[in-house]
Amino acid sequence: MTKKERSWVLYDWANSAFSMTVLSVILPIFYKDVVAKELPSHLSTAYWGYGNSIATLLVAILAPILGTIAAYKGYKKKLFTFFLFLGLIFTSLFFIVNEGNWLLCIIIYIFAILGFSGSNIFYDSFLVDVTTEDRMDWISSAGFGYGYIGSTIPFIISIIFIMKPDLIGITTLQATKLSFLITSVWWFIFSLPMLKDVEQTQFIEPEKNAIKKSFIRLYDTFKNITQYKSIFLFLIAYFFYIDGVSTIIKMATIFGRDIGVSSNDLMIILLAIQFIAFPFALLFGKLAKKYSARKMILVGIGVYSFIAIYAYFMHTTIQFWILGFLVATSQGGIQALSRSYFGKIIPKDKASEFFGFYNIFGKFASILGPLLVAFVTQVTGNSRLGVSSIIILFLIGGFLFMKVPEHIETI
After folding, report:
1. Domain range for residue 9?
2. Any stretches that span the bilayer, and where are they (predicted)?
3. Is residue 407 in a domain?
């Protein structure tokens, strides 16, 4: 890898600590077992789903606007930095959350996700600035792959303290809170190469009334996307299938607690997933070069469709291990190849604008999935039925993606 490519990949190494600690494992368990323990189980799960939907709605609204502004020279890095520090600050604020503060926890969670997801809008679009088109599948997959390994280091440190808090003379609750500070520090340190080495090379020159003209260009960009029928069809398909993927990521730990998987088992299983996902993410990148990114995305959709069906029949920890393994085989690959597939078919000088729409499709989709799970779970009182309901998203997404032509002319 070049220096720019390595620095870009390292940001995945950095922010994946947030994915592991806040999105996937420690925070959901902390919320479920401590913060919201006085709430009925199905209600705490539903409220968590609603919180995810609110957070992703905010990102979805901001994504295309910010992406259009970031197309101007020098803006992308500034916006990336702002959202990075927003995420760092609010992740640290989980330290102040105590038992019964479930509403405060969800509010902090919403702003932390806003910072994390907002920075990722610009991080994704920097892919066209750091590498060449023929290397995008590999570099994008490497980002996800190394991100899985990077996320495990602060996580392992955190769970050692949580399981053995006497090692540093604190309580389990204090050790849990400390994990959020560890995550913020890790995220910050390994973001420094990205801040130092990566610059915007594909851009539009600054002009007067930039904000006003950004909204005009936003409208023009939307018209352009709809004119490229294959790109627009891909985005609609992506809207559905990536919704299912992100919903499983966000709701898996809460679901595991609902079916009786212990907190310690959940942390071990989700840690194992990171190690399993690492080679599979790289494998997806290699296989995409041989068979095409399109075929490998379809493989990922197929695996996730099976996962959604399988979730309905889950009752034991062993079954959750199997589900975790299946998720690990395709989670990084389907996300990485979707990102690089899109990056190869869009105008490079308007990457931020188009990735703004890429993210709005992804984030609006991420509202639907948790909302669907929350609604079905609340109405039926059955978390397994709620999770299985997302099979609808994979079926629609897969059907539409199969309509996308095998070869799309690069713009």
Report:
1. 3-197+210-402
2. 12-31, 51-72, 79-96, 102-123, 144-163, 175-195, 231-254, 266-284, 296-314, 354-377, 383-402
3. no
**How high is the mean pLDDT of the chain?**
83
* Residue ranges with strand state E in 21-108: none
Residue 85: partners with Cβ closer than 8 Å, 6 or more residues away: 115
User: 90 near 111, Cβ under 8 Å?
Assistant: yes
What is the model's pTM?
0.72
Whether 329 maps to a domain, the answer reads yes
Q: Which of 47-56, 218-227, 296-305, 310-319 has the least mean pLDDT? A: 218-227
Q: What DSSP letter does each residue of 290-315 carry, written as one string?
A: HH-HHHHHHHHHHHHHHHHHHHTT--
Which pLDDT score, from 0 to 100, does residue 411 have?
A: 46
Distance CA 98, CA 17 (A): 22
pLDDT of residue 215: 67
Number of structural domains in the chain: 1
> What would the pLDDT profile of 134-175 be if each residue is shown by its tens digit?
888 888 888 878 888 888 899 889 989 988 888 889 998 899
Structural domain contains residue 275: yes
CB 12 within 8 A of CB 150: yes
CB distance 238 to 359 below 8 Å:
no
- Give the number of other Cβ atoms within 10 Å of residue 269's Cβ: 21
Q: Does any domain span residue 204?
A: no
**For the chain, percent of residues with pLDDT exceeding 90:** 21
Name the nearest CA neighbour of 369 among 335, 334, 385, 393. 393
Cα 327–chain centre separation: 14
Sequence-ordered alpha helix ranges (H) in 126-209: 127-130, 136-163, 172-189, 192-197
* Residue 241 pLDDT exceeds 80: yes
Task: Tally the C-alpha atoms within 13 A of residue 126's C-alpha that lie toward its C-beta.
Answer: 30
Q: Assess whether pLDDT exceeds 90 at residue 107.
A: yes
At residue 398's C-alpha, the angle toward residues 397 and 400, to 5°, is: 65
